[in-house]
Amino acid sequence: MMKKYGKRFLAAALAGAMALACTACGGSGTSGISGSAGTAEGSKKIGVIQFTTVPSLDNCYKGFLKGLQDEGFVKDKNLTIDFQNAQAETATADTQAQTMANKKYDLLGAIATPAAMSAYSAAKSNDIPVVFTAVCDPVSAKLVKSLDHPGSVATGSSDQLPLEAQVKMIRAFLPKAKKIGVLYTTSEPNSVSTLERLKKIAPKYNFEVVGQGVTNDSEVASGAQVLVAKGVDCFNNFTDNNVVNNMKSELQAANKAGIPVFGSEEEQVRGGCLGSVSIDYTALGEETGKIAGKILKGEAKPQDTKVYTTQTGTPIYNTDVLTKLKLTVPAAYKDAAKTTTTKSA
Predict the structure, then answer these.
(1) In angstroms, what CA-CA distances link 165 with 28, 197, 244?
(2) Are 53 and 87 spatial neighbours (Cβ–Cβ below 8 Å)?
(3) Which residues pair with 236 in a beta bridge?
(4) How far is CA 307 from CA 144, 269, 315, in A?
(5) Domain 27-159+281-309 adopts which CATH fold?
């Protein structure tokens, strides 16, 4: 009898252990698959790689989920999402993308240019659709052949900055300024191409653009100090992931010199920049999610789907920074949105 009961106890223990193991595999979070939609009729599994944690990219992901929902795909119901954050490491993004491609997900989402390049590289040989967002120049990044006719497994949305409107703002706030300093990461194609665009626009407003290339996060502080030494009257940020990740170092150098930093979107303004003509990144992500939803339903193909671009931005300025620099609001921006510096900035 003892042997009989011992065998029953062992069998029950093994069954319990297996049940616990299965439960552990079904968890959610940023390190694995979220949801249990794999058995739902018409359900899809997708992977999403966000290159780094900054508010604008976080907003893109929120919008992306909303856009998918608008197209009938709801996370944890008929959509399983493997969300990964590359923590600003290209090699990590490459590994994450390759793992997703090997699992043959229905679609890969990518937030920011480096993540999109990793996703595209991993997915193209497997013919897996890639839908990107927050990619300033998809053509220079070699993700698509053109914005109107992608001609590849990738499409999505571009956050090409409204640079002329931004330069107009800088001129209005700083009527006597001559030099705009720009920190940019040399390995980010979107930053390189945006710098070239800015250099073509700036002379129309009697500005000289002084660029300073950096290669990693440790060079942002020293790069900002170099620009200050070159006599720039202000800094202007792009959506450069490396620079934005280390914006506090840039702001420290600028604040010490008593010159303003203009951001490329409202979250940077909340972080301590003076002003920006800002793209709505939540709305951008939502349009991207709609594109992904249509592809998942078979209503569209990435190679034929035009890249969504937004041509306008909303002016916003930081009243705390304005007061600190003893500047006044130009008449043209008296109705612009206002914000203050977040406590954590």
Answers:
(1) 42, 13, 20
(2) yes
(3) 262
(4) 9, 27, 24
(5) Rossmann fold (3.40.50)
Lookup result for tokens 């698959």:
33
Based on the number of CB atoms within 10 Å of its own CB, is 242 exposed (0-12), middle (13-18) or buried (19 or more)? Answer: buried
The predicted-structure confidence for 152-174, as pLDDT tens digits, reads as follows: 999 999 999 999 999 999 999 99
Which strand (E) or helix (H) includes residue 79?
strand 79-85
DSSP assigned state of 265? S
- Rounded distance, CA 108 to CA 46, Å? 6
Task: Output the pTM of the full model.
Answer: 0.80
How far is 70 from 109, CA to CA, in rounded Å? 16
Q: How far is CA 89 from CA 15, 50, 223, 248, 272, in A?
A: 41, 11, 20, 19, 25
Tens digits of residue pLDDT in 302-344: 999 999 998 689 999 999 999 999 999 999 999 999 999 987 6
CA-to-CA separations, 144 to 54, 141, 302, 331, in angstroms, rounded: 25, 8, 10, 41
| Distance separating alpha carbons of residues 60 and 85, to the nearest angstrom | 13
Domain 163-278+313-339 coded CATH 3.40.50.2300: yes
Asked if 262 and 273 touch (Cβ cutoff 8 Å), the reply is: yes
Confirm whether 27-159+281-309 and 163-278+313-339 share one CATH topology: yes
β-strand partners of 208: 179
Listed by start position, the domains of the chain span 27-159+281-309, 163-278+313-339
End-to-end C-alpha distance for the chain, whole angstroms: 70
CA-CA distance, 166 to 207, in Å (whole number)? 12
Structure tokens at 345: 């900035």
Q: Are 45 and 80 in contact (CB under 8 A)?
A: yes
Specify the pairing of strand 275-278 against strand 314-318.
Answer: antiparallel
Give the per-residue SS3 of 48-61.
EEECCCCHHHHHHH
Its sign, for the CA torsion 32, 37, 39, 43, is negative
Distances in whole angstroms, Cα of residue 344 to Cα of each of 15, 248, 268, 321, 341 = 49, 11, 12, 15, 8
